[in-house]
Design goal:
Blueprint (H helix, E strand, L loop, with lengths): L6 H35 L1 H4 L2 H21 L5 H20 L9 H8 L9 H22 L17 H87 L5 H32 L1
Helix pairs in contact: 1-3, 1-7, 3-4, 4-5, 4-6, 6-7, 7-8
């Protein structure tokens, strides 16, 4: 069983996914602009300016209004899936059923991978099946008169066998793109979990090293404190002994040596006192 993410790890994942979503939204802005302009560009072929401008504009209004009014929701991403499917239907109609226009739905399906959410493939799949099934039926069974009203779904014979093959192949593409979206999301989470784990291990090592250093410093401070304290009494005894020894002789040369020893001992005593005072400060 996969362990649950820690609080920090969840924060990292949330931040990463938010950043990826923002970047994906920026890319989608350019893609929608291209889709819209493409619809206008192909309008000259069969004079479908109303469809190219009207449907394209409506698609953009639906997408951006949803994104604006539902800022904290992922609903706009599902609307994007619907919009891309409508653009496909728009292109097919504008080009009077040109079969190549059907391929734009595969481009749309691939584009949705950037959000790393396999569920975004579902609205696209549903609308493609509904669109293809409904219009294929109308073209082959209802509007069959070449001189009458036309559906403009396909320029090739789109019988039941062709329809089933078309839908199955499209479903395979949608499934694979959904899988890759899921895979990339899980890979991102696992990568963040690994980095988070390594970061926590490093924190533990640093904390351990800091504690070890502090412990060693404390031990050294105790050693200095005890040593300086132990030296104070012998030094005091030496100074006292020198004073006593000076009273026991009249030899000036020996007294001079005693004075020199006393001065050097005082220097040592002063140094020990300084060490003792500093060790107390460190200890506290």
């Amino acid at each position: 069983m996969k362990p649950k993410a820690t609080l920090n790890e969840q924060d990292y994942i949330h931040h990463f996914m938010s950043t990826m979503t923002q970047r994906s939204d920026t890319i989608i802005n350019y893609i929608l602009a291209i889709y819209y302009l493409f619809g206008i560009a192909i309008a000259y072929k069969y004079d479908t300016w109303e469809i190219g401008i009207g449907v394209g504009t409506l698609n953009l209004i639906i997408y951006y209004s949803t994104k604006f009014f539902l800022k904290k929701s992922k609903a706009y991403q599902y609307i994007l899936s619907v919009v891309l499917a409508i653009f496909m239907a728009q292109y097919i109609y504008q080009m009077h059923g040109m079969f190549e226009m059907h391929f734009t739905v595969f481009i749309a399906s691939t584009i949705l991978i950037i959000y790393q959410d396999w569920k975004l493939q579902l609205p696209l799949t549903f609308l493609v099946v509904l669109h293809h099934g409904g219009l294929a039926y109308l073209q082959n069974n209802i509007y069959t008169d070449p001189k009458g009203l036309q559906v403009y779904f396909s320029q090739v014979n789109f019988d039941t066998e062709t329809f089933l093959i078309h839908v199955v192949l499209a479903a395979v593409v949608f499934f694979m793109n959904g899988y890759w979206a899921y895979y990339f999301k899980e890979h991102s989470k696992n990568h963040i979990s690994k980095i988070s784990g390594e970061y926590e291990v490093e924190n533990i090592k640093l904390a351990s090293a800091k504690y070890s250093t502090a412990s060693q410093n404390q031990e050294f401070s105790n050693f200095v404190y005890n040593t300086s304290q132990n030296l104070k009494f012998p030094l005091s005894s030496v100074l006292s002994a020198i004073d006593v020894a000076k009273t026991k002789t009249d030899n000036d040369e020996i007294i001079a040596h005693f004075e020199q020893i006393k001065e050097e001992t005082k220097k040592i005593d002063t140094l020990v006192n300084d060490i003792f005072i500093k060790s107390i400060a460190i200890k506290n």
